Amino acid sequence: MKKRETLEKFIEQLKTKKMFSSILVSNDNQDNLNEFANEFARIIFCENLSIENDQCVNCKRFENKSLANLVFLGDGSLAINKSDVIELMHKFSLTTNEVNKFKVYILANAENLKNESGNALLKFIEEPPENTIAILLTKNKSQVLPTIKSRCKLIVLENKNRNDNSQNLIEEILGKDKNTILLSNSELKKMDKSELIGILEEAYSRTIIKKYLNIAEATLQLINDLKFTFQTNLAIDVFLIHVSEVI
Ligand SMILES: [Zn+2]
After folding, report:
1. Which SUPFAM superfamilies does the annotation name (predicted)?
2. Residue 73 CA to ligand 1 centre (angstroms)
3. Which of 105, 119, 142, 214 would bridge with 71, disulfide CB 3.0–4.6 Å?
């Protein structure tokens, strides 16, 4: 799933009090995982459940790392100790004076939960204190203890790079002057067709609709031509000519 869509879905679930109490987020890149976990944790505590940092009291406390009920476990490489898990359970079992009632822990490397620490956490996942949300992260979901995995909602995070590429590639083309837009054709023609379709679809849904309405239709046409015709090079030329004329 894409990060933004996942966060939007979770915000709805938080609003309707239907949020999962434990999620396992999978991606092969630790930075992507950390970014997702941090954004989601901030949203959970945000007074307005805002997808962007709205600088409310709790968003500021998040920035200052002064949210008492947000705990980080694991550093992405080492095994997680049972004592760390026990400490977390103890802390979260205490009543809280915090304004926001949620308690959130982010566990950076769920695949490193071994038997002892895994069993301790399992109990906690099965019977969490009220309003506790567990965000477990993993770069290798096949190595996460099956007992843990089966009790979490699994989120396979779509790789961020593709989104970035798609934004960059299309933005790059649109940022050129009229004549050099046409010279992008060789770059586009060299690309793997399915990859190009993916990038265009991504750009269509994320960027173009908002910023470049006048090429939205042409983008859709190109996606269709790439998918359903064999004249892909011609379709790319037609698209770029259109873009160079309207931009
Ligand atoms: Zn906020």
Report:
1. P-loop containing nucleoside triphosphate hydrolases
2. 23
3. 105
b/e per residue 44-73 (b: at least 16 CB within 10 A):
bbbeeeebeeeeeebbebbeeeebebbbbb
Q: Tokens 């009229």 sit at which residue?
A: 178
Q: Ligand 1 centre and the CA of 21: distance in Å?
A: 21
Above 80 in pLDDT, residue 19? yes
Model pLDDT for residues 179-193, shown as the tens digit of each residue: 888 888 888 888 888
Architecture label for domain 3-156: 3-Layer(aba) Sandwich (3.40)
Q: Separation of 101 CA from ligand 1 center, angstroms?
A: 14
CA of residue 1 to ligand 1 center, whole Å: 24
| pLDDT tens digits for range 63-118 | 999 998 999 998 766 778 888 899 988 888 876 666 568 999 999 989 988 888 89
CA dist 74 and 225 (Å) reads: 48
Give the SS3 label for residue 70: strand
Q: What spacing in Å lies between the alpha carbon of 51 and ligand 1's midpoint?
A: 8
pLDDT score at 221: 93
CA of 172 to the centre of ligand 1 (A): 33
Centre of ligand 1 to C-alpha 52, Å, is: 8
Q: How far is the CA of 130 from the centre of ligand 1 (A)?
A: 22
CA–centroid distance, 43 to ligand 1, in Å, is 7
Task: Count Cβ neighbours within 10 Å for each residue of 153-175 and write b for 16 or more, e otherwise.
Answer: eebebbebeebebbeebbeebbe
